[in-house]
Amino acid sequence: MSTILHLLQKDITLFLKDKTAILLTFLVPFFVIYIVGNIFSGAGDNGGLSSNIKLAAYNESGDPAADTFIQALENEEGLHLITDAPGPDDSRIPFTRESIRQGIVDHHYNFALIIPQDYLKKEGIGLRLEFLSNPKNQIESQIVNGLMQKAVYTKLPKLLSGQLDNYQREVMGDEKYTQFLDGLAALVTLSYEEAEYEEVRANMGFEGLANMLSPDSADSEADNDATAFLQDIIEVKEDQVFGKELKNPYLTRMVGGYAIMFLLFATTGSAASLFEERNDGLFLRLLSMPVKRTHILWSKYIFNTLMGVLQALTLFIASSFLFNVEVFPNFLNLFVVSVFASAACTAFGMLLASVSKTPQQAQGFGTLLIISMSAMGGAWFPVSLMPEFMQMLSKFTLVYWGVESYLAALWEESGLLALIPELSVLAAISLALIGISSWRFKTGDLFR
């Protein structure tokens, strides 16, 4: 037992001598709970629900009653409503059917609502809505659908009141319908002392009742039959702009984020092998020959990048055979994205090796940064659920651009030209990180 205690004392002493390791021991869990807490515990905007889920809305009908529905959506804290399109010279112009759909194609937003000209059904009672979407984030899609349903059911009496009055007038005839409202108004006036006949009569009919009713007066425990009735009279025409024909949409959304995380851990571990080769004296033997430090660095960089590409493609091919992710129709795009993503991840690993003095430090820094970037960059949660300042920070992580690249290649099935913006950012990250690493390797102690 004393031997074990002495060895334990030795491990504690070595740990306490490494100040960086002590710092990382507490920083890693702190940053993880800080990021997750901002998303789920209400520390973010609007009680934990960000107001940056963008929804475009277009009232094609021009009916003021339909504008009340759009106003209800604008009042939702979980949505950022867009009601016009970008025009020339930084101006804003009204939406058209074509421009509101093009906004989804151009990634200005992922969801759009159109209230068509004939939004009130001509036969029977009910309304029609058109919903366009690019549901590349399932959580985000569920939030938008829920908030839209809330707005529809809240404003449904107002939207249908005129239609119900006209329907009742057609069934009863103008004369009988007027007599019915007159008699009902007189009955209400006699029953309540404070009621004035003119005011009551003015609010007779479905439209008047809808104006008097508020959302707070509705019964919170809706009957199943009433819910079914509401669903029958609301017709939503859905147009999914991207990902409509995918066999496994859920995994297709997620696999890119996990691929980036895998590449980061794999290439970081491979770059850390530089410490093993240094300890074995391999670098000194190589440098005694006509070999420069940059030669060693670039050989490691290219090898680890190739290994990352091979492993990433293996991951995607396995997902195709096991879970029907449609990899082979987009294989060329996936290959190109994997090359750029692996190059960026390998450069990140080389940077860790260049600024660390021991393998333990490289592992600690790597764990902290990879987990933080994965959480902020969209590999775990939709970026739109985060506070605004974290959304801004996410765009400075290579995980964000890697996830966006894989989503464009797999989910949106974009061509190589459409991938240029994301790939350019990954290339810039690679060049910046490998440049810093080269400078650090020239001035650092790794090759001594």
Automatic annotation (TrEMBL):
Ranges for domain ABC transmembrane type-2: 218-444
Domain of life: Bacteria
Keyword annotations from UniProtKB, A to Z: Cell membrane, Membrane, Transmembrane, Transmembrane helix, Transport
UniProt key word Chaperone: no
Subcellular location, principal: membrane
GO cellular component terms, semicolon-separated: plasma membrane
MF-aspect GO terms: ABC-type transporter activity
One Pfam family this sequence matches: ABC2_membrane_3
Transmembrane segments: 21-40, 255-275, 301-325, 331-353, 365-383, 416-439
UniProt keyword Membrane present: yes
Membrane protein topology class: Multi-pass membrane protein
Location of this chain's protein in the cell: Cell membrane
Family of this protein: Belongs to the ABC-2 integral membrane protein family.
Protein name: ABC transporter permease
